[in-house]
Amino acid sequence: MTVTASPRLSAPRSASPPEGAGGVMLAVLVLLLLMGVSVLIGWLLSGATARVLPSAPPYLILVYTLGALLVLMPVTARLVPWITNWYYLFPAIVFLAAFTVLPVVLTVNYAFTNYSAVNSGSPDSAVRTAAGLSPDRRVVTLAETPQANTIQEYLKCRTPTCAGDTLILFDEEAAVPVRAKIASVSGKQVTLTAPAPAGLAVANATRLNRYEYVGLANFREIFAKASRALWPVFLWTVIFAFSTVVINAVAGLILGILLYNKRLKGRNIYRTLLFLPWAIPAVISVQMWVALFNQQFGIVNKTLGLLGITAIPWLGDPLWAKISILLVNLWLGFPYMMTATISALSTINEDLYEAASIDGASRWQQITNITLPLLRTSFTPILLSGFAFNFNNFGIIYLLTKGGPTQEGREATAQSTDILLSWGYNTAFASSGGQNFALASAIALIIFFLTLAISLVNFKAAGVFEEARR
């Protein structure tokens, strides 16, 4: 007699995780879907809550998302049993999405908008005006239209009727703004699509400073002013990064070779003393150098004056300011190169030096024919990473010179010692840049592509791709 297996008795889903790179990608995809569904549920629930309770706190979306995640994780584990072995990746994916993916997405998005302190998507308190509400709570009458001749100009309407635009309403205390959709406008009267909230005693109104997509306008503005900002700043950024790496590497290499000599007495004391500039926080060190380089009262110029040398404007002249940056960065960076050299030297077999000594090689010949060639492999990634770091070394520029001194013919946000990153910072956050976040985002994208191109050239020149193929 033939027995047919019941569908209910079919083999259970495999609990063993898939193997290889495909299995990893599949697990990451399942976790991303789980997180995406949880965020979607949290967003929908928080939106529904906000419609019922307008005073609900914004962080409810996080509470709802976490709750949805706690419910969906065991459900997903029943549907895909092997995914429980990959749940340890979930925190990493969440932090990666929150602190890397989301900022990148927002930066790219803002680069194609006019988002700034003026166009911020917030109520414009500077042009607030007195307002009254009709008995049916549908018509708002404005006392005046500040900085505009018509109500359409005042509200910056997309259409002549202002239909679909937003009017901001305030009570007497102006504590909580209430957004109301506009149905139409006439004279200084604004008709709303729905009655104003019952508990709101309208006393003032204002417009919404919204931002919108402007296409490639930010990039056209950057390249239109390239001779006053982009090209000189980019050139100095490359010179600064390259010079810093070369100077620090040479200084660190010389000191590392000298201090690795086992016959040198007190070498551990020298190592400790030379390591101190790296151990002291850069914020403190740079402020110390600002005082030392003071043109009138700094100890550097005081010492030069004793030697009969005229005071040097270390931080007041464009050329000397750049030299000052390189000197201070040498002070901050050579201990790292020195430590890296000492560590790399410890991997070289001492028998090579003994054999070279037996063959009559001098100390200099041993360095040039044994030490330097064997250090090349260790130093290549260090030099490349050092170049990439200094290409975006905002700290030394901001703390020492703040991008100055000013230079004629340059943009206010891109002065003589500004690098690309400080230029973007000044555009986004300094008053001289007007807090133009969209333009700063476009600068950030340009920095990304320039850094990527330079990194590819460096990797190609260093033979990194050939090593990877092996």
Task: For the structure shown, list the relevant keywords.
single chain; 470 residues; alpha+beta; Thrombin, subunit H; MetI-like fold; 7% strand; extended; MetI-like_sf; membrane; cell membrane
What's the helix and strand layout?
Layout (H helix, E strand, L loop, with lengths): L19 H33 L7 H20 L10 H21 L11 E2 L5 E5 L5 E4 L8 H5 L10 E5 L7 E9 L2 E4 L11 E6 L7 H8 L5 H31 L6 H13 L2 H11 L6 H8 L11 H28 L4 H9 L4 H29 L2 H7 L19 H10 L7 H26 L1 H6 L1
Antiparallel strand pairs: 1-7, 2-3, 2-7, 3-6, 4-5, 4-7, 5-6
Helix pairs in contact: 1-2, 3-15, 5-15, 6-10, 6-12, 7-10, 8-13, 10-12, 12-15, 14-15
Main location: membrane
Protein name: Maltose/maltodextrin transport system permease protein
Pfam families: BPD_transp_1 (PF00528)
Mean pLDDT: 86
**In DSSP terms, counting alpha (H) and pi (I) runs of 4 or more, how many helices?**
16
Going across the biggest sheet, name each strand in turn: 2-3-6-5-4-7
CATH topology of the largest domain, by name, is MetI-like fold
Number of domains in the coordinates?
A: 3
Q: How many angstroms does the end-to-end distance come to? A: 62 Å
Low-confidence stretches: 1-11
CATH superfamily heading of the largest domain: MetI-like
Report the top-level CATH class of the largest domain. Answer: Mainly Alpha
The outline comes out as extended
What is the number of beta strands? 7
CATH architecture of the largest domain: Orthogonal Bundle
What is the percent of helical residues? 55-70%
**Largest sheet features:** 6 strands, antiparallel, barrel
* Category from helices, strands and their pairing: alpha+beta
The helix/strand order is HHHEEEHEEEEHHHHHHHHHHHH
Kindly estimate the percentage of residues that lie in beta strands according to DSSP. Answer: 5-15%
Radius of gyration from CA coordinates: 32 Å
